UniProtKB/TrEMBL annotation:
Keywords: DNA-binding. Residues 10-70 form the HTH tetR-type domain. PROSITE patterns: HTH_TETR_2. This is AcrR family transcriptional regulator. Gene3D superfamilies: Tetracycline Repressor, domain 2 (1.10.357.10). InterPro entries: Homeodomain-like_sf, HTH-type_TetR-like_transc_reg, HTH_TetR. The keyword DNA-binding applies. The lineage of its organism: Bacteria, Bacillati, Actinomycetota, Actinomycetes, Propionibacteriales.
Length: 179
């Protein structure tokens, strides 16, 4: 029998955060219960609350996490080639992690909550600034890049773009414009 490995508090917190990203991606802020996140993480619901305080604070941590991942992917692409078109060509790396984009969309949707709205606006602004800084893009170029990215994000949420897309002629036509 293999002995059970004890995780550190940080490791356990990271597991809970990963479970939260998965759950919030599926059900959004309002539709996700902390006991579902606890079940996914293999911990008790009171433990989730002890780690993060409230569901809102856990959702904010999930939004922060996905935005950090988006920025990380853009930085990695820019290290190879600091051009806006290259960042766009690497968008498939984001599509391969659809939960990132779904949590971001749920963050936009929940922005009526003042704390969530403040966080989402600040992080989206950081992504915009990072894109401009990494590539030297003008405001208009950055806007067009983000507009195309939002369209791809919405198409990913509809499951017509990304891994195993549901084939739709209109989506195929639009997707060709991203190449």
């Amino acid at each position: 029998m293999t002995p059970k490995v004890r995780l550190t508090a940080k490791e356990r917190g990271d597991e809970v955060l990963r479970a939260a990203v998965q759950a919030f991606a599926v059900s959004g802020y309002e539709g996700t219960k902390t006991d579902e996140i606890a079940r996914l993480a293999g911990v008790s619901q009171p433990y989730v609350i002890r780690l993060f305080g409230t569901k809102q604070q856990l959702f904010l941590a999930a939004v922060q996490h996905v935005c950090t991942r988006i920025e990380q992917l853009f930085r990695e692409a820019a290290e190879e080639k600091p051009e806006l078109s290259y960042l766009g060509q690497n968008y498939h790396r984001l599509l391969a992690e659809p939960e990132i984009l779904l949590v971001l969309l749920h963050g936009f949707s929940a922005s009526g909550d003042p704390a969530i709205g403040d966080c989402v606006r600040e992080r989206f602004g950081s992504i915009y600034t990072l894109i401009r800084t990494l590539t030297g893009a003008t405001p208009q170029q950055a806007r067009e890049f983000l507009s195309a990215g939002m369209l791809m994000t919405v198409m990913s949420a509809m499951q017509v773009l990304g891994p195993n897309p549901i084939p739709m002629p209109w989506a195929t036509e639009i997707a060709k414009t991203f190449d």
